Amino acid sequence: MTKFALVFAFLTSICSWAQDGSAAIKHAAPVLAEDLTIPDDGIRVSVLGYHDLAENLPETAMRIHTSKFRKQMETIRQLGIKVITHAEFTAWKKGELQIPNKAMMITFDDGWKSVYTDAYPVLKELGFPFTIFLYKNYVDGGGKALTTPMIQEMAANGCTIGSHSVDHPYPLTVKSFRKKGTEIYDAYLRKEIGESKQFLESKFSCKVTSYAYPGGFFTEEMFKLGVEFGYSEMFTVVPGKIKRTLPNEMLPRYIVLGNYDKVFEMAINFRESTNGPDLAAGSTPGSIQTTPFPVTPEAGAIINTRLPEISADLSTIENLNPATLSMKVAGFGEVPATFSEETKKFSWLVNRRLRQSSCQVAVTWKDATGKAIETPLRWSFQIDRESAYFPDGE
Ligand SMILES: [Zn+2]
Fold first, then answer.
1. Residue 35 Cα, ligand 1 centroid: separation in angstroms?
2. Cα 276 to middle of ligand 1, angstroms
3. Ligand 1 centroid – CA 271 distance (Å)
4. Contact status, residue 256 vs residue 73, Cβ threshold 8 Å
5. Would 10 be classed as within a structural domain?
6. Whether the Cβ atoms of residue 109 and residue 164 lie closer than 8 Å to each other
């Protein structure tokens, strides 16, 4: 199985995405439109998401060795990647600030004590700003939780505070409230999204303007509330780089797993942001992509089904020989796509669930004289985490 499937398997176990009869409330996860009022500046930002650290405990998806964390931070410095503050990120996203070509933001979810004892010294030493997404009920939660003085000290030294809800509900809980009707669900979300913000703001005398969905799980109702409560960014756990035009309610983030180094490697790879848009087609999720022909799912889109129809509208090609058309889909190889003489669409309905978070497609053909196109039509799209996590028996 693929590496991505492996990653998802880890995250799935952590997030308790059990078989819960989710199909009953399977809803159309919204695909928010890109904000094209602020032009894309070609810059891509990686946001890293960590959880717990320890040197002398086994690494897990959610716990990384302190020495490995240090190594990763040093790698960022060596590569000349600029670690930006949350405020800089917000300003850049709004189109008010220019940032370097390779930029990164570092975040920690939940509020583990080890962020203070293990990560903070490293970050302080390297001068890296960071953000902690705290959930109300775990602040001063005892045991392995961060305490108020620890948070205050970090906040005074380059740490931004973001919200991670009141109670860190798992998707199962959120879904059960969603089933209870609009009013109850709305009140529930207002508490998780709104009360957590008020709590953190009054406790730490700061403005809280970002939210990380617990377990990365979101529903469309959360988007409106996020705006209403004044969040300028809401982060998921879908890996990918952030470009300026991405909707602020669904920002990707690389959750760095302690037992799977590939995620960090993906996050620090900025190849596509320096190569320009043309070479970016079909590369990394979240990167800018342009296709010379209309395609579905659109290049760079985040979709909510694992069984989409993949198509390319080739009606503008004049001397296409349909018999030579070929579509290749990552994980499937060449697929039996069909060409419609009427619509000039070359399409294939995915017949086995896409298991990866990102899907790459390549279409090639020859013209009437038998000459193959020089550059295959390539693009990629992302599969929304929620759909991607549903077990096979959904
Ligand atoms: Zn969390």
1. 28
2. 35
3. 30
4. no
5. no
6. yes
Q: How many residues does the chain have?
A: 394
| Residues 359, 285, 248, 155, CA torsion sign | positive
What distance in Å separates the CA atoms of residue 307 and residue 355, rounded to the nearest whole number? Answer: 10
pLDDT digits (tens, 9 = 90+) for 313-328: 888 777 888 999 999 9
For the domain that residue 218 is a member of, what is the CATH number? 3.20.20.370
Name the residue range of residue 77's domain. 31-274
Q: How many independent structural domains does the chain possess?
A: 2
174 CA to middle of ligand 1, Å? 14
**Gap between the Cα atoms of 210 and 130, Å rounded:** 13
The model's pTM: 0.66
Q: How far is the CA of 269 from the centre of ligand 1 (A)?
A: 25
295 CA from centroid of ligand 1 (Å): 35
CA of 212 to the centre of ligand 1 (A): 8
pLDDT, tens digit, 9 for 90 and up, residues 139-186: 999 999 999 999 999 999 999 999 999 999 988 899 999 999 999 999
